[in-house]
Amino acid sequence: MELNPQDMGPVINRIKRAQGQLAGVLRMLEEGRDCEDVVTQLAAVSRALDRAGFAIVATGLQECLTRGDDLDHVDVKKMEKLFLSLA
C-alpha cells in the first residue's frame, strides 16, 4: 500500500517538529541539564513520533478501505504487525 504524499503533510510536519525537539534534547544533554527536564523532553519526542506512526498506519488503513478494490487481499497480519510495532 502506497501512501498519498498529499495526505502525509501533517505527519511530515509532526516529524519535523519532533526532529527539532530531539535536537533540543541533544543540546540539553551537552549542556548537562537536569535529568527530569531531559527525560520530559525526550518523552515528548517519543509521543510525537508515536502519533506520527499511528497517523501513517491509520492513513494506510483508510486508503485500503476507501479504495474498495482488492480488500480481500489486504494482509491483515502485516497491518497488525505495523500497528503493534508502534506499541
Verbal overview:
- By secondary structure, the protein is mainly α.
- It is 74% helix and 0% strand.
- The protein has three helices and no strands.
- The protein starts with 8 loop residues before the first helix and ends with a helix.
- The mean pLDDT is 85.
Descriptive terms for the model:
87 residues, mainly alpha, elongated, 0% strand, 3 helices
Summarize the structure.
The chain is mainly alpha-helical.
Q: Beta-strand percentage?
A: under 5%
Distance between the termini: 21 Å
- Rg, nearest Å: 17 Å
The largest sheet is: none
Shape: elongated
Can you tell me the residue ranges where pLDDT is under 50 for at least 5 consecutive residues?
none
In N-to-C order, the SSE pattern is HHH
Backbone structural class: mainly alpha
Number of strands: 0
List the helices and strands and how they pair.
Layout: H1 9-30, H2 35-67, H3 76-84
Helix pairs in contact: 1-2
